[in-house]
């Protein structure tokens, strides 16, 4: 994909444009810092996802739910 061919005009795509223009080393460093932050755990990251799923299951699924069992 050629960077010059990517034109973003909407607010929702500005994050993508920033990622395309930023330095790869900076992206790797930011990811490393986030993943190695002792204040952020995998369980904490899943709390909002699980909460949302529980609410949607109660609201949307009347008879059955298909869900993975090997998280």
Short description:
With 71 residues, the protein is mainly α.
Number of helices, counting only DSSP H or I runs of 4 residues or more: 3
Cα end-to-end separation: 33 Å
Amount of beta strand: under 5%
Instruction: Give the SSE string.
Output: HHH
Assembly of the depicted chains: single chain
Structural class: mainly alpha
What would you note in describing this structure?
The structure is a single chain. The chain is mainly α. Helices cover 55% and strands 0% of the residues. The protein has one domain. The two termini are 33 Å apart.
Topology:
Blueprint: H1 14-21, H2 24-35, H3 42-60
Q: What are its keywords?
A:
71 residues, mainly alpha, elongated
């Amino acid at each position: 994909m050629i960077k010059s061919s990517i034109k973003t005009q909407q607010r929702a795509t500005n994050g993508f444009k920033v990622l395309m223009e930023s330095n790869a080393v900076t992206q790797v460093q930011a990811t490393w810092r986030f993943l190695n932050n002792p204040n952020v755990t995998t369980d904490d990251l899943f709390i909002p996802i699980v909460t949302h799923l529980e609410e949607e299951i109660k609201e949307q699924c009347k008879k059955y739910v298909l869900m993975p069992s090997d998280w």
